[in-house]
Each structure stands twice: as C-alpha cells, then as structure tokens.
Amino acid sequence: MNKIERDLSAGEHTPNSPDDDKKPLRGLRIIDFSWVVAGPMTTKMLGAMGAEVIKIESLTRPEHKQRSGIFRILNNNKRSCTIDISSAAGQALLHRLVAMSDIVVENFSSSVLKKNHLGYEDLRQVRPDLIFVSASGVGRTGPESDALAYGTLLQAYSGRGGLIGKPNELIEAMGILPIWTDPVTAMWETFAVLSAIYHRRRTGKGSFVDLSMLEATVALLPEALMRLSAGVGGRGPGGDYDGESAPGGCFRCSGDDAWIGLSVRDDAEWQSLCQVLGHSSLAALYPTHQARLDDAEAIHAVIAAWCREQQATAAATLLRQAGVPAAVTRSFDQVFSDPEIQRRGVFAQLPDGSHNYTLPWRDADTGWRGDLTPPPELGADNDYVLKQLLGLSDQEYDELLAPEILA
Amino acid sequence: MLLEGLSVIEWSDDLASQFASRLLGDLGAQVLKFEPPGGSVIRKKGPMWPGQENAPEAGILFDFLNAGKICRSIDPQSSTDVAIFERALAGANVLVQSGLDAAFASGGLSVSQLRDRFPQLVVVSITPFGVDADAGQYQPMSEFVLQHHVGVAHAMARPVSNPEAQPPLAAADHEGPLAVGVCGALAAAWGLLVVQAGGKAPQIDLASQDFYAQVLLDDFSQFAQGKTKFSRDRKDNPNVAPAGGISWLLPAQDGFIMVSPREEHQWQRWLVVLDHPAWAGEAALCGSVAIRKQNWAKLRDLMGEWSRRLPAAELAARAQKQKVACFPVSTPAELLKNAQLHHRRFFDLLVSPGGGAVRIPGLPFQIVDSSGRQLLRERVVQRPRTEALESSNYE
C-alpha cells in the first residue's frame, strides 16, 4: 500500500460522495491543540478538505467553555475531545492517539507541550512520519521565543500599524482593530501543512514546522523594507496612499460616513477624471504623473470639493463609467449582502440557519468550496475518540472519568 | 524542498499571482514565467534600483516577486511562441494565471482549451472578482479601490473618534494582494494533492474580493451574532475597541509600546513592572477588568506618565520578563535591525543589479523534515533570470 492509499484508508469518510475527489485530505487525522484564531482557522480549512480534525480541549479551562462568538466561525469541521494533558494518563492516551494520526497542530506558549511530553521530539517517537506544526508569536527559537504575544500586539510589532496610520494612544486608524495577523498566519500555516503532506506522500517523511506570526505579517510588507535596505527612500503604499496614483485616495461624499476610494494611474484616467469634475483645463495644467504628484494637495482639494456634493454610489459609478477606478467604501454588512458575494458562496448557511465562511477559493468546475459542519460541543466526541479509535472498554473509560483525566 | 521536482508556469500581471508562484518556487518548484513583449507591467512599478531609474529592466518590487524564476517573453499573437508556451505546459504541474484568456484570445488559446489538452495541469486563476464574474461591472479597478469596495478600508480605520476627519484606510504596504498570493499558493498545494490522490486537476477560482470579505473575521463574527450596522464611530463601538482595558498603546522615550495585561494575574504582574504606583491600590480605578475597561483612558494617561521615561525596547523586555504581553510599535528601520528576526535568519538577501544585496522578507517558517533536511533561511536569492526562447530547457 503506498502512502496515499494508506492515508486514504486510515480515517473515517463517506465513500463515493460526489465531492470526494475534492477532499484529498480524507483519511488524514489531525490532532488539534490550537486555540484562539490562527490555529483553529487553519484546521477548519484542513477539515474542509477532508481531514478528520480532533480538537483536544479541557473542561477546566474557561476559554474552552466559551463557544459563542468567533469560536463558532473558526471551529467547523472538527470533533472535540477533552483530555487533561498535564496528567500522565492523559499524555499516554494522546501518545496512542498521535500514533494513529498524521498531523499535530499547536500554538501553546513555548514550553507547554514539551513539559507535558507532547513536543515534537516526544511524538515523533510514536509517529516517525508525523507532521507537527508549532505556531507562535515570534517563533520557537531566538531571544524572544518565550515572549507572550497576542495578534493585536503583533500587528503593532510587525510595523504594519505605522504603515497604515500614525501610532496614537487611542489606537485609532492604524489597522489594529481588525484581526489581520491571525488570518494571514492561517494562510501561511495551511500552505506549509499542505506542502508537508505532499512531501510526505512522495517521500514518506514527516516534517516539523516552526511558524512565527510576526514573520507571517512582516513577510507581506516588502516595499517598506526594501526601500530602506536599498537606500531609495520614498513611501510605498498603505493607509491613504496606494503608491502609484496621482491623484488618488479616499474622499468624503455626501451622506453619513460616505466615502469613495479613487485611483488615477495614468494620463488617460487623469483626463477622464478632469472631465467628470468639470475641470477639463486641469488636464493640461498637470499633464504628467510627476506634475500631479508635485501639486497633489491642490488637486486633492478640487476632487474633495466635488465629492462632498455627490452621493457616493453615484459618484463612483460616474467615475468608473468615465474610465477612472473608483468604488464606494463599503462596510461589512454591505459586502455580505452583495449579490456577487452571495452568488459565489463566500459565506454559506448551515442547517441551523447560521452563516459561516467557506474556503477562500472555489472549484471553477463545480463551485465547491469545502465541507462545512457546525462546531462541536465541548467533549462531544470523547466516546468516538476513546472507545472507537483507541478501543477503550466502558470500564476503562469510566476509570478515566473519576480522576478527571477526561477533563 | 517540499515541492521539489514540480514545474510551475506563470502568466500573470498582478502581485498576488506573481507572489503565489514565487512561494511555490520557494518550496522547491521550478517556476517559468512567461511575459508579453515588453514584459510584465509590474517591471515598471517602483521603486527602481538606484542608478537604474531611467532605463530600468525591472524595479525592486518585480525582482522581489519573481526572485528565482526564469522569465521568457512570448508574443501571444505568434503561433511559434504559442507553441512553445504549450510545450512548456505539457510538462508542467501548475499554471498560475491571470488574464490569459484575454491575452491569447486572438491566438485561439484559452484556459479551458489548455485544461482539455493538459489534464494534469492544476490551474490557479487569481482575479479581482472571480473567473465567472461580469468583468466589466466594477472596471476599471485598482488594488487600492478594491480594498475600499470589499470592506477592508472601512475595517482598518474603525473605530475612530471623528469619522468626519479620519477617512477609511487601505492595508499596509502590499500585504493585501500578497496575502491573496499566499492563499493562491495554498490553493495550488490543495490542487496538487487532488491530482496526487488521483482526482481531476482542478481550476482554482480565487477572487481577491472573496478573500478580503472572509478575512474580516471580527466583522463577520459580529454579523453572525446579529449585528447589522457597522459604524466607524467610536461611540457606536463600545465593546470592540482594542483599547479599553484589554490593550493599551503607550508612549515610550523613543516611540511606542503596546501592552496587554488583559487577565487579572497579568494585570498584577504588570503592576510589578510599573513598580506598584500609588494609584494601583485604588479599587475604584483599576480593581477589576470591568473597572479597568471603564477607566481605560485615565489608566492610559497614568501609565503613560511612567512609560514615556523609558525606551520602548526596555519597557517590552521588563514586561515580558514578568510574562506580560508587550512589544514595541516597530518602524521599518527597527524591523531591519530586529534581533529576533535576525536570530531566526528571517531576511533573505536579494542580489542587486550592481552585485550588492538588499534585505527582503523571507518565509515565515522553519521546516525540517524527518530526515533532517531543512528549508534554507537567510538565502541569497537571485533576481529573475530572463532567457531567450532559443536557450530554453523547457520545451
């Protein structure tokens, strides 16, 4: 039996489902110690591709009891099993479970799994071709490897906050509120896991992945770093500037917090803009990109005065029809209800009526966007994991309950 | 190393696609980039290499996005060139494309035909709105404008005290399209696994619009809980401000820090860092998380009086020593000198046209397989190499 066949025969799945060929992780089992956002988002995606994800949780940790809010959109496609990882009996169960699994995903503080004999070096002894993904704030090595980190703080530490806006004590308009580092980390993490699976299926080798959320964020900020490193100076894109337009930016329109984003990237778009503004003479006054950059403030004032009198949707439509890139600055509720977003299945409705997000891409032939099952209740799959997978008898199971191993 | 032996063909003119194929190359695939006559428009995107401002072969951004690739120019109108392109695809595993149908239309080539002809080929199509969208509906569109259209700009500047004076803002640097590119790479890996498992090679339809809508997790989470209106005004967002008793941004002698003593035990240790100021004992000021949320602004000012006397790095080190989450607010210059990033050999070195080297961000993970083989870090990466058609080994 080759690696793929072994993977595909190892786990539970419904045979001959019409989407089976879209789920190449069928047969793979993931032991998921991760929590908060990035790790759960990663394992949700892996579950959507067919992997069996078993979330290892604790009845005694208050954060694991919190299953509303963002938990519900990050923990689909998973089972839940409660095991006390600090007990020897719990660790023994997990060693047995990992031995019949393929991937471990974790994002604990630096020493938690090691001190509980659940680190990569421990677990590779029971599963030599294990793929073990350890995600952390700044990485598992280096002078700050023990640092306690949260995503919002990493968004400041990564430098991106200062590239969006000016750091300020109100933490306003500098991109700190929307969760960014976490979902971006999840993309990198899933890429690493899928590539490691591909490698394992070809070579039989497992992998250890040490992923830094700080690096995952900084990796997407090349221009600011390269400008400095190359000594060319100037400003790249971010916040109110797109790095290529003259003019461009965000302009206030008539109505409650109504804005449009606008870019003029070349002379043709500039001439079109001037016509829409009713200032055709401006086109000749600033015929080049550089001339428009040099007098950006004056040009922006003209655009701002025009926009202030316009309804945002009408202004954006008028500009686009004239060949100028422009769009209304929309809030999430407007984006969610966009017929195109709905048509493409970006968000899906579960049988209980709740909405959830799907895989970020779709299969062009069928529109498939991954499996999507409701998140599990805490410990809902203890019986499945302990009795069905590990083969514990009722008596053995009960014996684990008394000393609170399943806690 | 993980994707060694794979062949990736790229035809694209956008940052996301070029970054996606670059990442597949970083993990070991060989990437052959085809460009139209005159080259990709990204070549002319600034900044330019010093000394090459007037006659650039390519700017620094293009070289970053395409490091390690082999580039070849083909004319989609030329049947000879199209035949060469098709021969390259015959041996390839992945095609990353944007705009292929439009470019090759007059030559009679389409993605659909290519998939019929090369059924092994995983096709990654990255577009603003999807391969089946009405292309004209929101055209013309720029990346900046797209981020306004799909809610990113609204979220990046929310909440604010004065929405009238604080406009919506796009994401930092190129992180928007590059994040889409990471997603493109992971989707390509999914497609490769589908083929590896014996399935039909898929065409991946990745729309930037879809990605951005999903990445707004906070907003969607609140929407899923029944929130229907998303105001940017701070007074309408009492429970979502990152400040407000959970995190603070405080002034330092030389910049800022962000600190988050969000749990009670962390708060107690943070008071140790602050050296137990007199106000720390005032229960009505800071006696619980709920009270600290009420008094966050006053506490910010009190803590700021202390923090502004010390350097940011010192403040962060003192806090972390007490197991309180705290980091400096970095500038790009500070990042280039960051000890943690250097220890982990995060930055790659991109060889410049003059033979020097520029620091560029590397991959955010260290990977070692069970045989001990490691993904290289702090690599010296070469600018993309342009090859003439005649010298190709890919036909």
Task: Set out the fold topology.
The complex is a heterodimer of chains A (407) and B (395).
Chain A: H1 3-10, E1 29-32, H2 38-48, E2 52-57, H3 62-65, H4 71-74, E3 78-82, H5 88-99, E4 103-106, H6 112-115, H7 120-126, E5 131-136, H8 151-157, H9 160-164, H10 181-203, E6 207-212, H11 213-218, H12 222-230, E7 238-239, E8 248-252, E9 259-263, H13 267-277, H14 280-285, H15 289-294, H16 296-308, H17 312-321, E10 326-328, H18 332-336, H19 339-343, E11 347-349, E12 355-357, E13 362-363, H20 382-389, H21 394-401
Parallel strand pairs in A: 1-2, 1-4, 2-3, 4-5, 5-6
Antiparallel strand pairs in A: 8-9, 9-10, 11-12
Helix pairs in contact in A: 2-10
Chain B: E1 7-11, H1 15-26, E2 30-35, H2 60-66, E3 70-73, H3 79-90, E4 94-97, H4 100-104, H5 111-117, E5 122-127, H6 143-149, H7 152-156, E6 170-172, H8 175-196, E7 203-207, H9 208-215, H10 217-224, E8 248-252, E9 255-259, H11 264-273, H12 283-286, H13 289-294, H14 296-307, H15 312-321, E10 326-328, H16 332-336, H17 339-343, E11 348-351, E12 357-360, E13 365-369, E14 380-381, E15 385-386
Parallel strand pairs in B: 1-2, 1-4, 2-3, 3-15, 4-5, 5-7, 11-14
Antiparallel strand pairs in B: 8-9, 9-10, 11-12
Helix pairs in contact in B: 1-8
